[in-house]
Amino acid sequence: MEGPEPSEFAKERHAAFAEMMLHELPRDYASQEINRVTLAYFAVSSLSLLRSLHRVDKDQIATWVLSFQAKPKETHNVDDGKFFGFCGSRSCQFSEDSVQSVSNLASTYSALAILKVIGYDFQNFDSSIILESMRSLQMPDGSFMPIDSGAETDLRFVYCAAAISSMLNDWSGMDREKAKDYIINCQSYDGGFGLTAGSESHGGATYCAVAALFLMGFIQTDCNNSLSLPTSTIDIPSLVEWCIQRQGADGGFQGRANKDSDTCYAFWVGGVLKMLGLYHLVNKSALRTFLFTCQSPYGGFTKFPYEVLPDLYHSYYGFAALSLLDEKELGNLSVELGLAALN
Amino acid sequence: MDYFRAVYVARELSPRALRLTTEALLRNPGNYTIWHFRRLVIDALDSDLVEETLFVDNLAEANSKNYQIWHHKRWLAEKLGPEAANDDHDFTRFILCHDAKNYHAWSHRQWVLQKLGGWDKELDFCHQLLEEDIFNNSAWNQRFFVITRSPLLGGLSAMWDSEVDYTIKAILQNPSNESPWRYLQGLYKGNPDSLITDERIPQLLLNILKENSYCVFAWNFLLDVLCKGLRPNKEIEEAVKGFTELDDAGSSDQDLPTRICSALERMDPIRVNYWAWRKSNLTL
């Protein structure tokens, strides 16, 4: 197949891929339909990073996203524990009585992220019900459930809550101290973070932990790129070494020790180092070489090297990882929010 | 889905509603609304939980990375209580046979242990997995979980000594395996003074470096213990000085940690920036 050199970023192909994924997903994604809004976030945020948002109708996207918002009746009592955020899919919506709709934290994060990326004007957006009802999702140990009817609680949803609060610029929806305590308990003996206390250190969990601490203001870097941690929180040297050790001889990043390198961890783990002001410790040329072995000839990125068919998740995090590497065809990233930098 | 919405809105908690959720979940096991409703129906009908376990285990086998299925298993386990803990462990053992690093299975297993028990064979299970694959980091993590949390073993302080021996044996088996090195580090976290006084540590490092002078993890560990205050014996000093070449800009007075960092910059090129950074921070 004719095309760019293997080490050249195929911007047009990637933009075409992301645009196609926004309009219609291939049937292989049917099992992921419950996460439709999240998939749209990957596509829209990809287009934003690719500086290709002009390819889409932003008003149409805004209308579509807002149609997933769950709204209470006027007489609703916020103490009944129900969460009113955004649903992830039509299959969680009930058209006649939208009070039945089941919204969740992850799709709320995705929905707000899409709106931010397309430049939606939040001036008239009433976020109060999202934040008030989000409090019901926080557990006594500081973690968050994704939905009010009960589900697993882990670091992913602590991150979502922090990102939602940050995007809405309002921290009334969560107890940050409790969330911080939960995060600290998730640091493993080897310096990385697991999704729950006692779980194996994992790149995605580590990102959620550090990004959430960052967003909540518990980690700051000053102008000298030194870290300041106001109270004793986490073991930074072990964390740094854990992250650095995830880069393999093939240049890519693995998600856990002794596992294969995978495109997405270049963002999850690389992003942690970036937030800590230590991205310069990454072997960038080796990483770049690895990522280009995952660039699909069809546009997008694959999970592993030399596979052919891309998927939307690895494509988005491939773009995000290359943005961290200052790929010139890509825009800047807001690492802690996981989306294109907002101007 | 419209049929489902109808019974959901009507709150019809009947056998046919249960069958409907079965149909719906077989098509889309990710829909948490349907799982939630199914739980309401099961409670209302007081359905056979053993049969339900069979249903969800079949789904879990085919969709072993689906969060909602594992959550439903948790809900069932809680209802069935401690007597069912061993059956549940048998199931996760089965899943881990096919995928020894399945994160969901390990999370679930840890939850069942803490909530319902069944700790007695867990350390053996970890050992068995490590015999099959000493590189299995999930099994090492589980081992740490067991020795620190099992109510049957006395906690880390009681297990510490034997675990250090166990880990050293594993390291010697394959010094390029990151997992036992991290585990060893973890064992000493609660006991930092012993890290610099335990004779086994310099002995281990010398043994490895004699056979394999390019073992990055060994040099890394030595660097860390020196930084934490280990007083190097003569053998260690000679090993470092003998192996490490002088930096072009350096002198024979360079201290051991500096020499080791320089050596690591050459030995571990992927992490060359990290070792240079460690070196620059040594005097801080």
Automatic annotation (TrEMBL), chain A:
Carries keyword Magnesium? no
Q: InterPro entries recorded for this chain?
A: PGGT1B-like, Prenyltrans, Terpenoid_cyclase/PrenylTrfase
Q: Which GO terms describe its cellular component?
A: CAAX-protein geranylgeranyltransferase complex
Keyword list, A-Z: Metal-binding, Prenyltransferase, Repeat, Transferase, Zinc
Asked whether the keyword Repeat is assigned, the reply is yes
Q: Which cofactor does it need?
A: Zn(2+)
According to the entry, every stretch annotated as the Prenyltransferase alpha-alpha toroid domain falls at 9-332
- Highest rank taxon of the organism: Eukaryota
What molecular function terms (GO) are annotated for this protein? CAAX-protein geranylgeranyltransferase activity; metal ion binding
Pfam families documented for this protein? Prenyltrans (PF00432)
Q: Write out the similarity annotation.
A: Belongs to the protein prenyltransferase subunit beta family.
Query: What PANTHER family does the entry give?
Result: GERANYLGERANYL TRANSFERASE TYPE BETA SUBUNIT, GERANYLGERANYL TRANSFERASE TYPE-1 SUBUNIT BETA
Q: What is this protein called?
A: Geranylgeranyl transferase type-1 subunit beta
Automatic annotation (TrEMBL), chain B:
Q: Which cofactor does it need?
A: Mg(2+)
Task: Check the record and name the InterPro entries matching this protein.
Answer: Prenyl_trans_a (IPR002088)
Q: What is the lineage of its organism?
A: Eukaryota, Viridiplantae, Streptophyta, Embryophyta, Tracheophyta
Q: Which family does it belong to?
A: Belongs to the protein prenyltransferase subunit alpha family.
User: What are the entry keywords?
Assistant: Magnesium, Prenyltransferase, Repeat, Transferase
GO molecular function of the protein, one example? protein farnesyltransferase activity
- This protein is called Protein farnesyltransferase/geranylgeranyltransferase type-1 subunit alpha
* GO cellular-component term (any): protein farnesyltransferase complex
| Main function | Essential subunit of both the farnesyltransferase and the geranylgeranyltransferase complex. Contributes to the transfer of a farnesyl or geranylgeranyl moiety from farnesyl or geranylgeranyl diphosphate to a cysteine at the fourth position from the C-terminus of several proteins having the C-terminal sequence Cys-aliphatic-aliphatic-X.
A Pfam family this protein belongs to?
PPTA
Query: Enzyme group, top EC level?
Result: transferase
Annotated catalysed reactions: L-cysteinyl-[protein] + (2E,6E)-farnesyl diphosphate = S-(2E,6E)-farnesyl-L-cysteinyl-[protein] + diphosphate; geranylgeranyl diphosphate + L-cysteinyl-[protein] = S-geranylgeranyl-L-cysteinyl-[protein] + diphosphate
**Source organism of this protein record:** Rhynchospora pubera
Q: Which Gene3D superfamilies does the UniProt entry name for this protein?
A: Protein prenylyltransferase
Tell me where the transmembrane regions lie. Answer: none
EC numbers listed for it are: 2.5.1.58, 2.5.1.59
